[in-house]
Amino acid sequence: MIVLTILYILLAVSIIFNGLGIIGLHRFPDVYTRLHAATKCTTFGTIFMTFTIMVYGGAMYYWYPAQEQYLNMVIHTFVALIAILVTNPTGAHALARAAHRVGVHPEKAVLDHLADKEEKE
Amino acid sequence: MDDFKRFFSTFLLALGTYLILTFAAGVSIVEGTPLWGYEQLVLAFSVALIVASVTSHILCRKDDFRMLNPVRWGIMLVYLIPLFIEMVKANFDVAYRVITGNIRPGIVRIKPGLEKDLSITLLANSITLTPGTLTVDVDEDKKELYIHWIKVRKNPTETISGRFTKWIRRFAE
Amino acid sequence: MIDFSYPLLLAVGIFFIYILISAIRIFLGPTAPDRAVALDTINTMVVASMVGLGAATWETLFIDIAIVYAVLSYITTLFIANYLEGVGSK
Q1: Residue B134 pairs with which residues in a beta bridge?
Q2: Which domain holds residue B60?
Q3: Which of B45, B65, B85 is where one domain is finished?
Q4: Distance of alpha carbon C61 from alpha carbon C50, whole angstroms
Q5: Which ipTM value was assigned to this complex?
Q6: pLDDT per residue over C33-84, tens digit each?
Q7: A interface mutation test: which of B28, B94, B123, B146 has the most A CBs within 10 A?
Q8: Residues of chain C contacting residue A45, judged by C-beta atoms under 8 Å apart
Q9: Residues of the domain holding A45
């Protein structure tokens, strides 16, 4: 029963933070702040989704040690977690750099060292 | 010697990936344990040998093999704990900004003082996952990072990267 | 023995609604990078849904596909970013 409660909490955290990312995608004014919401919140939410699966599969394997597909699933989900954790911030970094090169500047920016540097060149 | 080291590290990476993905896949050497079968092991070694011999020139192009040291990987695993705490803070921070719309953005330049490519990449990824900051561009000659900061304050280098630099310097420099 | 497949299916349904909402940003987005950001978000959501579906039906194959999808969508994002940089610098 404790396991079920933990699973519900993890799943709720995942859904809430993914939803927060989507809300931020629509509420923030420009592409950089949207990237903030989209990257941080969806990465965090998806990590908690994988945590849910890992706890679920781990508990099932603990109760039925003969069923090896549960352990297999936990390990594959862990690999998916690493893939998400490595690729998502790097993709956001590439998109932000592309946005700045295209000429989208941050709205209401108080200072912009990168634009200063590009002007100098 | 460098050729062999490059081959060996590619081989280890390919073998490790194959063995992790086929762990607990059904057949096992020892009855009742979730290990690999003989066929799996033979296949893993031969596939890793083929992959290493074909693609060994891609990995470790700069002839720098410091990441073969397992201690560095251990510290990297420990580093995930402070990173996770920062991620929790970051998400509540974004939640606050989404609800109130309280932003004062700007792009600032920081000089973290790291030299290697791997450590700068790790620092950039960590900065992207932590509160209010997003890496936009990197100056590869001067080793400087350009950060989009959602609420600009004083002293950017120390505030943004201070707590990560000392961790990353331990295992990736 | 616990059965957690129905909450997981519900979560996947909610993620599907999220995907539809972020697709609105693809149509609205004033600039091209905005659309790329929305696409990146959708890709992450698809990975989360695939992992959830895999656990709900106990099909490890779905999770393998989720790993491959994550890596391929990352490469797609890099290509889009590279293409945008090329367009902007002309």
Answers
A1: B148
A2: 2-65
A3: B65
A4: 10
A5: 0.85
A6: 888 889 999 999 999 999 999 888 888 888 889 999 999 999 999 999 888 8
A7: B94
A8: 48
A9: 2-120
